[in-house]
Amino acid sequence: MRLEEKKGSIVLDNFNSTANLATNPGFQSTLSLGSKEVINEKAYNPFEHRKVEHPNSTIGSLVHLLKSSLGSGILAMPAAFKNAGLIVGGIGTFVVGFICTHCVYILVKTSQEVCVDAKKPSMGFAETCGAAFEFGPKPLRPWANFARTFVDYALTCTYLAALCVYIVFIAENFKEVLDVYAPEYKLSVETYCALTLVPLVLICQIRNLKWLVPFSAIANVLLVICFAITMYYIFGDLPNPAEREMVASFTQWPLFMSTVIFAMEGIGVVMPVENEMAKPEQFLGCPGVLNVAMTIVIGLYGVVGFFGYIRFGDDVRGSVTLNLPQDELLAQSAKILMALAILFTYSLQFYVPMEMIWRQIHHKISVKYQNITQISIRTAAVVGSVALAAAFPDLELFISLCGAIFLSSLGLLIPAVVETVHKWDRGLGHFNWILWKNCFIAIMSLVALFAGSYVSITGIIEKFNEPVLEKLLNGTLSRVNETLVSTLEN
């Protein structure tokens, strides 16, 4: 700045009244105020970023969820009531159904929240579990990949175990019919399990989901017809409910719980249904797709179990279709329809574990050998499921064992753990009620896991050791008899 004096005036050149501290090295500021865009940035909304090619409507999603939950398991509900009694069975079905619904709710809710953290539009079951750990407490973050992998393998094992149950369903229903109409060719359940091998191997070579849709549609129609016929016989001649047990032995309750969990739990398909919705915000809430679907499911399962047990009592079998009259064509047709429906459903259920297995190994196999590898893995998986079903062909015990080992863990324990991890740093509610609630669910899951597995395995051992013990006893008695005869002769 230059100052000049002229007659009675002062001239200032390059005068600036603004103090420019930011350019002065002594006054460098480290405070960042941010831009207008950063200040006004909206929170990430995963629903706005979903790009679904063919989204499902709310009604369509409700139908999908009902179809996944209302399967062959509903026909096992009378056998579940046999292990609990009418009173315990009725209350227990509602309680277990409520807890299963809540576990699905907290899994979906957690998935929607971690999608915001990860800035991803949607996640599957395994991805949600991994993300909950990844964005959870720091000590647990290294476990994210393990959680994701564990759930993937658990889902695979669950579907493969359910396939074994399907094979026993098919074998027992075919045996019931053919033993009447072809008595000269009476075969064991194990043989019928083995006879399913060839058609199942062939149908399971279909790799495109598009070509499996017709099989699923046919299976749904057959199941509806079979269900209608079964209801006709259940309500046709009901005895007095007082003739049935109101409260069964406490030691049988784990079988009831495991069977109900197996029949009702469809947690593997929940995330795909929610991810494909046009309006996913309508999946939860009141009424919401989940609440409406599970209300219908719990109601139907309770009605079928309650009245099915009243109708057939302690003679009820693993699938109530097996109790239908053997001398009536309509009843026998229901068994054939049931067997065919499960046969067609098998390939669709098989698609899920195969996708999981192939996703894990396809990058390790040369393109040249991928086709033959697919054929080999699919064939080996079907052969394994048939062999396991033939080894333990007791439908009721097999269903309770699968429910105890797999679905109690996936459907109850994992959602409780995942929500607890996700909420740990975000708040567990007043008096940590979320933590206490999830501890209760985890304890219930572990009781179903260990008690249900123990009772089921004990039942299987007792049942399939009976022929062996009988042969040993008969052999021992015959040898004792021969010894006595020879002694007397001498």
From TrEMBL:
Main location: membrane
One Gene Ontology molecular-function label: L-amino acid transmembrane transporter activity
UniProt membrane topology term: Multi-pass membrane protein
Coiled coil: none
TM segment ranges: 59-81, 87-108, 150-169, 189-206, 213-235, 255-273, 285-310, 330-354, 375-392, 398-418, 439-461
Alphabetic keyword roster: Membrane, Transmembrane, Transmembrane helix
Keyword Coiled coil: no
Compartments (UniProt record): Membrane
Domain of life, source organism: Eukaryota
Domain Amino acid transporter transmembrane: 56-457
GO CC aspect terms: vacuolar membrane
Protein name: Proton-coupled amino acid transporter 2
Origin species: Papilio xuthus
Gene (UniProt): LOC106113525
